[in-house]
Specification:
The protein has about 230 residues and is of the alpha+beta class. The chain folds into two domains: about 10-155, 2-Layer Sandwich (Beta-Lactamase); about 165-230, Winged helix-like DNA-binding domain superfamily/Winged helix DNA-binding domain (Arc Repressor Mutant, subunit A), CATH 1.10.10.10. It has eleven helices and five strands. A five-stranded antiparallel beta sheet has the order 2-1-5-4-3, sandwiched between helices. It is elongated, with a radius of gyration of 21 Å.
Length: about 230
């Protein structure tokens, strides 16, 4: 089968960008393509659904090969790495940049971090909560594709569910959806009233309606529920 003939233009352009990025291309292009295509599905990246799920939860996700080269990463990983070490200078070298950014983060960690074993480390940040990194080995030693899932967790961020999910699951109105998302982000009723220009009585009335529709009774219970549904697209 001629894979080039069935790839979308976006994937062909991505391949071309990688090959133009020297000297990284010679080592990553082969590894990247091996992770991008499977025998069962020639156009769906391996591990992409996992990275998409992590992205919806507010977690950065990267797939690495056994040499630590980045095969795929999600938008949250790009955002976190960019905030910590600076954005990629050239989009064509994004995977190489991500590998270097991960190395810089690991050098700032308090403990040694071995990618070949499951491990947690934290990276201290001035004026922010720590950044947590979790490496999860996947596959077997003979697997030439992705070997490690690296998860980046910004402990300063709160996950937020999609408004459409809140409407479909609980029947919230647009005003209640906005309130629930602000509550999920850690805002108090008084802060929400100040931000939205509503009276505290109106905010409390909307919150009572959200409690009833979500079958919760307290804000911590509601926040925990909203965090669980944040993964839904």
């Amino acid at each position: 089968m001629n894979l080039q003939s069935i790839r979308p233009n976006e994937i062909r352009a991505r391949d071309s960008a990688i090959e133009d990025c020297e000297p990284f291309a010679s080592t990553v292009a082969i590894s990247y393509r091996s992770s991008l295509f499977s025998k069962q599905d020639d156009v769906v990246p391996l591990g992409q659904p996992l990275l998409d799920s992590l992205d919806r939860m507010g977690y950065g996700g990267l797939l690495l090969d056994e040499g630590g080269r980045v095969l795929l990463l999600n938008p949250t990983a790009t955002s976190i790495l960019g905030a910590e070490v600076g954005a990629a200078a050239a989009q064509a070298c994004k995977l190489e940049w991500a590998r270097g950014a991960v190395k810089k983060l690991l050098r700032r960690s308090r403990t040694r971090f071995a990618l070949e074993t499951e491990a947690w480390v934290t990276v201290a940040r001035e004026g922010k909560r720590d950044l947590a990194l979790h490496a999860v080995p996947v596959g077997e030693a003979s697997d030439v594709q992705a070997r490690i899932v690296l998860i980046l967790i910004d402990l300063s961020l709160a996950t937020q569910p999609k408004p459409t999910v809140l409407q479909k699951l609980f029947g919230l109105t647009p005003a209640e959806e906005r309130l629930a998302i602000l509550i999920a982000g850690g805002a108090t009723p008084a802060e929400i009233a100040q931000e939205t220009g509503l009276s505290i009585a109106t905010v409390r009335s909307q919150l009572a309606s959200v409690f009833a529709k979500t079958q919760t009774t307290r804000q911590p219970e509601l926040v925990a529920l909203l965090a669980r549904v944040a993964i839904l697209p």
